[in-house]
Amino acid sequence: MARRKLVYEGKAKILYEGTEPGTLIQYFKDDATAFNAEKKAVIEGKGVLNNRLSEYFMVGLQAIGVPTHFIKRINMREQLIRQVEIIPLEVIVRNYAAGTMAKRLGMEEGTALPRPIVEFSYKDDSLGDPLVPEEYIAAFGWATQQEMDDIVSLALRVNDFMSGVMYGVGIKLIDFKIEVGRVWDNEYPRLILADEISPDSCRLWDIETGRKLDKDVFRRDLGDLADAYTEVAKRLGVLPTNVTHNPTKPTLIN
Ligand code: 5GP
Question: Using one digit for the tens of pLDDT, what is the confidence trace for 143-175?
């Protein structure tokens, strides 16, 4: 088989040239990283689960009219996506205090926020993705004021959808990160949801027990990450309930 052209390799995903102009193939790796890649591991099956889960959320979002880069899943680890101009921001939506917000403000993790809060970080690993005010974003030309307003609306729609889906399966959506890309219709730019939505980029807590079902399991050494992600996938019906995670054997899912 001819080798595909690698376009970009990140910490958890690889982008290859797609089958048609304007498309890419997004490959989900098993690599897990935290604290700016200071902590690293290979978690067997994570890429397969995230490919499936991200497909599930993107398809659901498209069904309620949220534009996304997702075109179709190709196989267990790959999906065909629309090529976008990535806006160099991490867009974070928080419903409850946790992580950097809890630390910065001295809040107890899990404290409900008065309303969902959207914040922007500048996407730069070497700087540790610093939180940036809108003033910086406009001044440095990363996004226009109109685009920032559109990103906030998009992020809140994603939050409503994701919170509802998760609540339906007994999971509290604490916070999450999305990335947004620009596509051009003739000379007019339009924003669409890009990257992925998976337990790698969300905080998900079981409503009854408070068990963490997201990447904090890896960041904080709380147990088997693939088990946590498998639990999310099972509850959503993305995996048959009789499939159990076996770290020594790959699990075939259709
Ligand atoms: P925090 O700012 O508290 O570290 O993260 C807030 C939310 O955004 C969490 O759900 C976290 O998983 C997600 N997030 C923040 N930065 C990144 C990142 O660089 N990569 C991924 N995958 N998720 C992130």
Answer: 999 999 999 999 999 999 999 999 999 999 999
> What is the Å distance from ligand 1's center to 217 Cα?
13
Residue 5 has pLDDT above 50, yes or no: yes
CB of 178 sitting under 6 A from ligand 1: no
Tell me the CA–centroid distance for residue 187 and ligand 1, in Å: 33
H/E stretch holding 195 reads none
The DSSP symbol for 150 reads: H
Extended beta strands in the chain, E state: 6-9, 13-17, 23-28, 31-34, 39-42, 70-73, 78-82, 85-86, 89-96, 112-122, 171-185, 188-194, 202-206
- Indicate the residue type of 215: K
Which one, of 110, 105, 130, lies nearest residue 216 by Cα?
110
Alpha helices in the chain (DSSP H): 46-63, 99-105, 134-139, 145-168, 216-219, 225-235
Spell out a b/e string for 40-57, using b for 16 or more CB atoms within 10 Å of the CB, else e: eeebbbbbbbbbbbbbbb
Is-above-0.90 flag for pTM? Answer: yes
Could you give all domains of the chain from N- to C-terminal order, each with its CATH number?
Answer: 6-84+223-252 (3.30.200.20), 85-206 (3.30.470.20)
Chain centre distance of CA 98: 17
Residue 235 Cβ inside 6 Å of ligand 1? The answer reads no
Say yes or no: CB of residue 216 within 6 Å of ligand 1.
Answer: no
Ligand 1 atom with the shortest distance to the CA of 101 = 3
Q: Is 13 in the pocket of ligand 1 (CB under 6 A)?
A: no
